Amino acid sequence: MGNQLLVLDNEKVQKARQLAQAIAQKVQEDIYRHTTVSVERTVARLFGIDGTNHEDIPLANVVVDQVNRAGFLDRGIAYWIANAVVVLDKSPQEIAQHCARDLHICELSAQDPNRIARVMNTYTDQALTTIAKERQKRETLKQSLGLGEEPLKYVIVASGNIFADVEQAKSAARQGADIIAVIRTTAQSLLDYVPYGTTTEGFGGTYATQANFRVMRQALDEVSEEVGRYIQLVNYCSGLCMPEIAAMGALERLDMMLNDAMYGILFRDINMERTFADQYFSRMINAYAGIIINTGEDNYLTTADALEEAHTVLASNFINEQMGLAAGLQSWQLGLGHAFELDPKMKNGFLYELATAQTIRQIFPDAPLKYMPPTKYMTGDIFMGHVQNAMFNLASVMTGQSIHLLGMLTEAIHTPHLSDRALSLESAQYVMDNARDLENEISFRPDGIIQKRSEAILDQVVDFLQDIEAKGLKRAISEGHFANIRRPQEGGKGGDGVIPKGIDYSNPFMDRMQQELGIQSAPGKGRSW
Amino acid sequence: MSSKDKVVKPYGDSWGDGQVQLSFTLPIPAGPLALEAAKRLALQMGFEGIQVVNMKDLHGFSHFILYGSSRHSVNLDEISVVDAGDEAMTFDEVNSFIEKEIRRKVVVVGACTGTDAHTVGLDAIMNMKGYDGDYGLERYPMIETYNLGSQVPNDILLQKAMEVKADAVLVSQVVTQKNVHIQNLTELIEMAEAEGLRERLIMIVGGPRIDQPLAKELGFDAGFGPGTTARHVSTFVVKELARRI
Q1: N or C: which end of chain A has fewer CB within 10 A?
Q2: Would you say the C-alpha torsion B154, B156, B157, B163 has a positive or negative sign?
Q3: Contact between residue A179 and residue A34 where contact means Cβ atoms under 8 Å apart
């Protein structure tokens, strides 16, 4: 446990946690009732379905769309694939290839439920075993190579070309980066499919594909050996394909995933039911794969004011924590997010930043907190920007943050140049080493600005969560309580991909993972097998 | 200014010294070869008295910080500029200008169009809070705003503009690569022209890579780059609107 620089009112913290739990539980009831096209495509992918048809449409989409068009997706794609496996005595991949030509799997005769169940079990075992092996491999590498010192230095590559990304990532690792995130190409979050194969063109980032994941992980494994520490890889489990990306990351040993319960709704205008159902299954996969998620509360402060809205970040941390725990994640996997976004012209702004960062640190002592750099007040004055980032580095090391996304002096100008990253790493190294044990040498005055600010935020959080608990999370979002953004309860992108589960619905991965992770499954859900 | 003073070059600490600081990366490891390459490059860029003050190895790459004196200068008499911002009015001045000159609320629709998901710039201009102490358009009592957010297709933006009888359309383009924003902005203007809407709308584009000449070239009424706040945009909109009415 870190330093207790602040005195927190534990009763209030507990109260906030209980409120968040109640809020999450209410959402969870809806989640249990729905599946989505992306959840079903994830099952298809985990059954081994990969590749595309002659129009470059992923086979997972081909199969799921076929069943959905026939109106039978409420039973779950697992049933239809397993039934076809029994009838045709072919692998799921072969069946998907046939579906791309002329096979209609819903027209095949229904087989013996026991044989279907055995097929499902076989393919579920196969996929989960692969994921467990990758998890084990990561644990071994982390043990043998070790990790960098916290706050871990997290940098972004975003060239659009995975092979150029690899060169930049290796260069960054050699200069001291601990974590590499490959930013996705603009607008991938709104694609209702995951592109296939390695890619060399993107806008403001690189496509997240399973092949790209593999290329980057392999390169980072090589450079990890070279630099003598395990370099972690991050991608984006967000948008319309959350659970599919989670499955790909689990199979290709990604180490972290951006994976927020509400981000898609707020910042991409994705349908609420869709996002909630997708985030649940994606988080379950991340939990099972031992992946650390990063939540996106920093984004709130890019649209809303960092001084007035600091409590919404903390409130969202509480909600993300509860929704994460409900999906089987453990505290060490919850990279809850926050950011250093106060106006640099504000008197004592740094003290307020410390207050928020330290409050969150103490409330979530076991969570690998993700601290985000200034973006809103980065202007293009790169010299000033470099100083702002230095202040951010100091706040991070002083308050014991875990995952530190390095600020770039060219933020707001372009995706980072190689030298921007090097300058940033050098600055972080310098500030953090120079102030390494500062947190053990200081305490905050009990009647001082920082302590008072912390108390005020906590009070606001309890009020805010009480309000949300009373009206429900969906209504709260529709009224613009987070990030000053309003989203309608109905509507948003991807809503047509939400399907109420039938009474005979089955998802063997969800069942098995719920069981192994020891989490609650849908209350009173009748098992069909 | 004397005619001599009209010819300017970069100023380090004395008139005419031409001092420029420059940094760049070469895709080769640091060493004597990289150093010489950097100097020759700077020479070709038009610098004299080149001083490489820092060379750092970035594992296969090398980063340079150097100073040089620029051989070049510009004659201010030979330059003409257009200032889209005009003299920006204050928040109160804009509102009373609308009350007096336009006598109804001015309707503004804004969006990040195409694939762009970055609303920072648009929010800085439109959101209540504004930016850098300048209130956003939402706060102006005489301006009615619609912020459509990110990744808005061009046709949806124009449809909305018609629906609410917009006077002005603000388009923000922040993150772009390989000039996708140019293509997207051109498409918007073409669409507006095809629909016969172009003349009825004041069309404005903003973003870190946008300036007035580019905006004009693409067929917009004005372009705003870094450092713009709501005052600049609202001043332009209301003056242009008053001119057209």
Answers
A1: N
A2: positive
A3: no
